[in-house]
Amino acid sequence: MRHTQLGRSGLKVSTACLGTMNFGSSGGCDETEAARIVDAFLEAGGNVVDTADAYNGGDSERIVGRAVRGRRDSVVLATKAFLPQGPGPNDRGLSRAHLTRALEGSLRRLGTDHVDLYQCHQWDDSTPIEETMAALDGFVRSGKVRYIGCSNFTAAQIVESQWAAQRAGGTPFVALQPQYSLLARSIEAEILPVCRRHGLGTLVWSPLGGGVLAGRYRRGEAPQAGTRMARLKASPMPMARAWADGLLNEPNLVIAEHVAEAAAGLGVTPAAVALAWVRRRPEVTSVIVGPRTLDQLRDNLAGLDLPLPPEVAARLDEVSRPARLAPADGTRAGG
Asked: Does the keyword section mention Oxidoreductase (predicted)?
């Protein structure tokens, strides 16, 4: 597995990142299987393991911490904070008060004295960004955090954050975690150019579009019982149902059919083609894969190694390009 620099930093990261949102009983991956996944990922040359304090009530961090024990120095350990950690008004967000408690909690669950990459899970409208960046800079100066990043920020929010750090002579972000796949290409318009300008590498999540690009769902058919989309559509949470409905729309399922067609022609799985398309994008530093089983990890890593023929990549570019993204040669986009 190749390694490359993360943004405008000296940190070397693998081109695949192990996402651990599924680690824990409520995520569908128990600790025994999670340990096997971590072992195989590290043996394959991967070094970035990403988690968050909100994943499965902290179980993901606990499992990750135990899985990397004894080889901590060879792992780029990344976690995130923002989401609620309690019922109180200061138990969420990007305030200095919450981030300080959140970091201490993450360090305790991970069983380590520092986090290599500490990330803001999302933007906080209620906290001045100057306060957030000052708090993060303090963590870096204390040695409890090595690098800082953000997740799901807009282009304008990235710029505000970097300017706030610059004005204070503090630590800037070196990484962004955005959603990116053949089904979600909006970051190409503004966010990726801003990342290049301001020195952020990208660790992209949901490269399989919630499993839609893996060929698990078809037009005119309800999601099969036990699949992720079936669980989301049956969720009591309106946001979960809305997310599933947004993924399982007609245009997305048409794109998935093109991916399946390309996969059949190459003799590989649709997931492999979708992952290979994301991995070949020059703006992508690392692709986050979130397996629930060891077999899924192996399939994902094989897809990231797949050499995608230029004509296949060009066809997928065409059929998945959003209307607002003009093709590179200025011709009218199809699809």
From this structure: yes
For strand 175-177 and strand 76-81, is the pairing parallel, antiparallel, or unpaired?
unpaired
Residue 55's CATH number: 3.20.20.100
- Specify the pLDDT at position 327: 57
Residue 280, number of CB atoms within 10 A of its CB: 14
Query: What is the tens place of the pLDDT at every residue in 39-49?
Result: 999 999 999 99
- 266 vs 264: CA distance, rounded Å: 5
Separation between Cα atoms, residue 157 and residue 25, nearest integer Å: 35
Domain of residue 95 covers 3-212+274-307
Burial group, residue 277, by CB count within 10 angstroms (0-12, 13-18, 19+) = buried
User: What are residue 19's DSSP bridge partners?
Assistant: 50
Q: How many C-beta atoms lie closer than 10 Å to residue 293's C-beta? A: 15
Residues 91, 83: Cα–Cα separation, whole Å: 8
- Is the residue at 238 inside a domain? no
Active site residues: 55
Instruction: Average pLDDT across each block of 10 residues of the chain; the chain has 335 residues. List them in order.
Output: 97 98 90 98 98 96 98 97 95 98 98 98 98 98 98 98 98 98 97 98 96 86 74 74 83 95 96 97 96 95 95 97 64 34
Q: What is the number of domains present in the chain?
A: 1
3-state secondary structure of 157: helix
Would you tell me the crossing angle of helices 129-142 and 155-167 to the nearest 10 degrees? 60
**Signed CA dihedral, 70, 44, 46, 215: sign only:** negative
The model's pTM = 0.93
